[in-house]
Amino acid sequence: MPELPEVEALTAFLSARLTGRVIAEVRPVAISALKTYDPPVTALVGRTVGPVVRHGKFLDIGTDGPHLVVHLARAGWLRWREHLLAEPPKPGGRNPLALRVRLEGPDGDGFDLTEAGTKKGLAVYVVRDAEEVPGVARLGPDPFDPDFDLARFRALLAGERRRIKGVLRDQTVLAGVGNAYSDEVLHVARMSPYKLAADLSEEETARLFEALGTTLREAVERSRGLAAGELKAEKKLGMRVHGRTGQPCPVCGDTVREVSFADSSLQYCPTCQTGGKPLADRRLSRLLK
Fold first, then answer.
1. Tens digits of residue pLDDT in 79-113
2. Are 39 and 28 in contact (CB under 8 A)?
């Protein structure tokens, strides 16, 4: 799933290519991806693209009229096309295309929104204001907000009786961090994903806050200037523990372990994060019985 660093990079990529351009066509292909009907998608046609901004994991393409707001979900992606075919795309079947946006100009350039797999979560909204999107309206503070400091972070965690892994992923608490970067942040902070947020000491909270900013900023820097098609590979290469089960930890050399859940998993280093003790994985334990 694209998270804050990838969506930040996509925002910069699209800003350079869309700002000041006029939208010639917006064609929904997977109707299930379109979550609004008023204004209609046709209201974007003929509009000049203004700022492209990010709200957490949401991509907001503003115009001099409505906004096109996109959440890429687990398997969605944006693919830039230098030359879009004139004939309309065919819906249905195994076609991953969900929405096509073509710009005015001789090249007919633009972008496709695609989604792989059968579990469809890609969401597209055409709204007068981004705050009309429920997921945007519920977002907590963004780690890149100028006023997001240690005191505010500490206030977010106060009284939280949930595991810190879940708190970091909760978009109503903190915008933009998902499964992958929460693993990375906790590894950098040398902290167990099972630790209760409310039990963090002042030193641990400060360490986690520093790890959060450092991890996200470094990921954004690695992605800066890359084409949209290169961002997924860069994200995977930059991971320390996430998605690296069974591989050596880059810090201590211990084997990266995994805990599986119904629809996701987390990865961690026992030596760096849990005092050398493997975390209980009830799903794996049931499989081994």
1. 999 998 777 777 666 778 999 999 999 889 999 99
2. no
**In which element (H, E) is residue 63 found?**
strand 58-63
pLDDT per residue over 193-206, tens digit each? 999 999 999 999 99
Angle subtended by helix axes 4-18 and 202-223, to nearest 10: 40
Q: How far apart are CA 42 and CA 25, in angstroms?
A: 8
DSSP label of 196: B
Say how far apart CA 56 and CA 49 lie, in whole Å.
20
Contacting residues for 195 by C-beta, under 8 A, at least 6 apart: 163, 164
**Contact criterion met (CB below 8 Å) for 157 and 191:** no
**What are the residues whose beta carbons fall under 8 Å from the beta carbon of 140, sequence distance 6 or more?**
156, 170, 171, 172, 173, 174, 175
Tokens 């503003």 identify what position?
62
Query: Per-residue b/e over 133-159, b at no fewer than 16 CB within 10 Å?
Result: bebbeebbbbbeeeebeeeebeebbee
What is the CB neighbour count within 10 angstroms for residue 79? 15
Question: CA nearest 123: which of 13, 252, 1, 255?
Answer: 1
Query: What is the Cβ-side half-sphere exposure of residue 191, based on CA atoms within 13 angstroms?
Result: 29
Beta-bridge mates of residue 257: 268
Beta-sheet pairing, 257-260 with 265-268: antiparallel
pTM over 0.90: yes
